[in-house]
C-alpha cells in the first residue's frame, strides 16, 4: 500500500502536491510502528504544518458550479476526518476506513448492512452495549441474533439458519478474555457466504489485524486503546474491500453517525503513540498477571499471556501480543467492593485502554444489565474485577493492589 496516497488517496484529496522531502517512499511497505507516524496525513502538504489541520467547517464553497469541490458537506466528507479514516484503513490493511461518533455508532452503522428478516450469529460474551443493541433495538426491526460460545466452532456451525447473513466476533472477549479462532470462523463463514465482522478494540491493529485472516469489517471503540487518554469518544470501522467500503460509506452518510473534526484530530494525536503505549502496558500486564496468579487469595486470573489460559495457542496464531487487560476473581462480591474502595492508583471506572490504569467491576458496571444467571453462566462472577493496565510503574500498581487486598477481608475459598 502506498503511504503517500493512503487507501483513498488522502494526499490528492487534502493537500494537492507533496513535499519534496516526503517523496520516494511510494510503494515501500513500512513496518507498523513507522506507519503510525508516517501514514500520509502527518504533514499538511499545503503549508508543511506538522499535523493535519482541523477543518472546522460544515460546508465547502463551490467556486465553479460545474466543477464542485472534492468535499461538499462535512457529513459526507471532511478532510480532517478523511485523514483519520485513511489512517485506520492503512493500519488495519483494509480498503477503506470510517470514523464515527462512538464505538456503538460504528457498530450500529455496520449492522445496518443487514435487513429485516436477516439473522446474525454473535459471540455470547459480546460487549454489553452491542448485546443491548441486538436484543432490544435490532430485534424490534426484524434482525435476529443467536449468541454462541465462539471458542467452539461446532456451536457456531449449529447456529446457522437459512436466513443467516453475518457472524460477529470479539476476541479476546470482555471481561473473561476468551479467544475465538478468527481464521476458522471466517473460513467457515465464507463457505456459507456470510459477512464477518470483528470488534478489535482489545488488541488494536498493533497486535491483531483481522483482515489478514479474512474478516470483512473490523470495528473499534477508539475510545479505548486507539485514543488512549480517556478524553475522546469515537468509533472506527474498516472494510476489507472497496465494494463493502462503498456500502459503509452510504450508511455513514445516510445515518449521519460521523465523528466531529476536533475529535478526529485528537484521535490521530493519540494513535501516533499506540505502539509505545501498548508495548509498555503489555509488559506491565504480564508482570501483574503473574503476580496475581501467584497469590492464594485470588481465585482466578484471566489473561491470554498466561500459560494456563485455554485460548493461548489460538491467540498466538492470530495476534502478536496479549494486550493490557487482565480480569481476576477476588473471591466474592463483598471483597471486590472492598478492593475497589481501597485502591489508590487506578481510576475506578467503566472503560479501558488508557494511559492511566482503570479498574472496573463488570457486575455493577459494564455487565449490570445482564441478568445474574446469564452473568454467572458466562463466568462474570460477583468477585470479578477487570484491570486495564496503564503506563504507571508496574511495581507501584502491584504495591497498591497488595495493600488493597490486605485491607479487604479475605473470604475462605
Ligand atoms: C467500549 C467498547 C465498545 C463501545 O464503544 P463506545 O466508544 O463506548 O461506544 C464496543 N466494544 C468494546 C469491546 C468496547 O470495549
Automatic annotation (TrEMBL):
Gene3D superfamilies hit by this protein: Aspartate Aminotransferase, domain 1 (3.90.1150.10), Type I PLP-dependent aspartate aminotransferase-like (Major domain) (3.40.640.10)
Region (Disordered), start-end ranges: 1-27
Keywords from the named record: Amino-acid biosynthesis, Lyase, Methionine biosynthesis, Pyridoxal phosphate
This enzyme's EC code(s): 4.4.1.13
CDD domains in alphabetical order: CGS_like (cd00614)
Entries under InterPro entries matching the protein: Cys/Met-Metab_PyrdxlP-dep_enz, Cys_met_metab_PP, PyrdxlP-dep_Trfase, PyrdxlP-dep_Trfase_major, PyrdxlP-dep_Trfase_small
Residue positions, PTM N6-(pyridoxal phosphate)lysine: 224
A single BP term in Gene Ontology: methionine biosynthetic process
Pfam families to which the protein is assigned, alphabetical: Cys_Met_Meta_PP
Protein family: Belongs to the trans-sulfuration enzymes family.
Protein name from the UniProt record: cysteine-S-conjugate beta-lyase
Annotated organism of origin: Paenibacillus vortex V453
Lineage of origin: Bacteria, Bacillati, Bacillota, Bacilli, Bacillales
